[in-house]
Amino acid sequence: MPLNDDQSSDSDSSRLSESTASSSDSEYSRQSFNSDSSSKPSSPASSPPKIITFDELMAAAKNLSDLTLAHEIAVNANFCIKHEDLPQNSFAGTVKQIVHKAFWDHLESELNEDPPEYEHAIKLFEEIKEILLSFLTPGANRIQNQICEVLDTDLIRQQAEHNAVDIHGLANYIINTMGKLCAPIRDNDIKQLKATDNIVELLRQIFRVLDLMKVDMANYTIQNLRPYLQRNLVDYERTKFQEILEETPSALDLTTEWIKESIEDELSSVSDESSSSPGADSSSKPIISPTLVLNNGYLKLLQWDYRKTIPETLITDEVRLQELREKLNQLKIIACISLITNNMVGAAIVDGPDFAEHLKRISVPLLEGMSKKTFDLKEALNAIGVQVCSKVNRCLTERGLPTLNEEMQSNLMGQIAHIVEENNPVTSLIDKRIQLFMRSLLALPNFQKCMPTMPGGLSVIQTEMEFVGSQYASIVNFNKQVYGPFYANILRKLLFPEAPMRKEETETPTN
């Protein structure tokens, strides 16, 4: 039963129906994103601890999941849902194959009976009807009515009783409707459906393409949500976390411990400076800057052992922070190799722009996957050492200079291989300079766009350091905007426990 021409406006508008996902998860997300949060406190409220039930704990976990998803959609422009099948050689994939084959074989045997048995096919048509309806925009009334009329389960069942079901006609109508509702990327899949003759295989492929269309719909919804979330993400995340905190009062325990460790580090640093300064008054209580404490806490994340649980307020950026840490570790090794080579053969070669690029081309591929347990850093450094020696000798030859003898090559390769050792002086020096650059970056005002001066020894990785630094500063500054009120209360309690907390400080949002 073909679509009428006067229904084209409905069907054309329906091609964008992905923007209104109607699955239960999508509806839940839409309601939570559009809910009025003005009545909720945007800063942490002080309340006595309470006993948490299992249901409340699970609700808090769901809230955290929603918070993480919303954050990911807003900050990651490449975030999307992917359609992934189970690996065929896996146990779950094998079970799925067996079950699906049994179902479709059973359907084929039913349709080949004389007269055909249509009960399972009717159930499939009913499921297809519900999926097609879920793709429609609210105003597509004509095509909605037509889908309901053509795929009317009661009518099809009556036709089946008289052996008058036009199953191929129904399948063709479904394919044509899918062609009007799908994203352009699925046009080729629709063409392949039209070329399939076997009805059982056709129904199977229809469900495959419908699954792809569901993913397309979800991604279109995400695309439309992103601008809204980006405009409202600070208020949304702060309000959502406040809800989590009300349901789970312990939701700031790890964050409190993280800040407490940073305070202890600062006290230790101040104590060391006082003891080394003659005439310092050791009896006076050291004054510690809350901003400095917080920035030092953020710096710890670049050396964090991510096998441990990260502070609750940073869970939404855990993956990004871990990737930055791994990238910095890689850049640190490249800078160490450059410094060692410089000391061995002189800056005339190492400081050349071509040599820096060649050094990175040598090192980066061999340092890929450093975070994996199976990665052998010592073996990678040995391989890098061999290639660096070869490159240095080529550069020396091009400049008419004597090449490195075997002893010098062995020495250079040995120093590169020793980078992996604990307390290596070169590694410690480069690490301190990277930390200095990142610390200087956090000290810049938010509105300032220029980068701090790159410390000596990092010129070979300057471009990469500035890129990583800008990503890191963006994460930190946004995190401060969202969770600043929570951090302020924690810092106040830890640094100034004797100061009474005013009521308005717990109720007024703080940026």
Question: What do these coordinates show?
Answer:
This protein has 511 residues and is mostly helical. It contains 20 helices and no strands. The protein is extended, with a radius of gyration of 31 Å. The two termini are 60 Å apart. The relative contact order is 0.10. The N terminus and C terminus are likely disordered.
- What is the rounded Rg? 31 Å
**Number of helical regions:** 20
Unreliable stretches: 1-54, 503-511
Helix-strand makeup class: mainly alpha
Strand content: under 5%
The geometry reads as: extended
> Strand-and-helix sequence, N→C?
HHHHHHHHHHHHHHHHHHHH
Count of extended strands: 0
Summarize the biggest pleated sheet.
none
- How far apart are the termini? 60 Å
- Average pLDDT rating: 78
Q: What quaternary form is this?
A: single chain
Please summarize what this structure is:
The protein has 511 residues and is mainly α. 67% of the residues lie in helices and 0% in strands.
Please name the defining characteristics of this protein.
511 residues; mainly alpha; 20 helices; 67% helix; disordered C terminus
Describe the protein's topology.
Elements: H1 8-14, H2 24-34, H3 54-75, H4 91-111, H5 119-134, H6 141-150, H7 153-161, H8 167-181, H9 187-194, H10 199-247, H11 253-276, H12 290-300, H13 318-345, H14 347-350, H15 353-367, H16 377-398, H17 406-417, H18 425-443, H19 462-495, H20 503-507
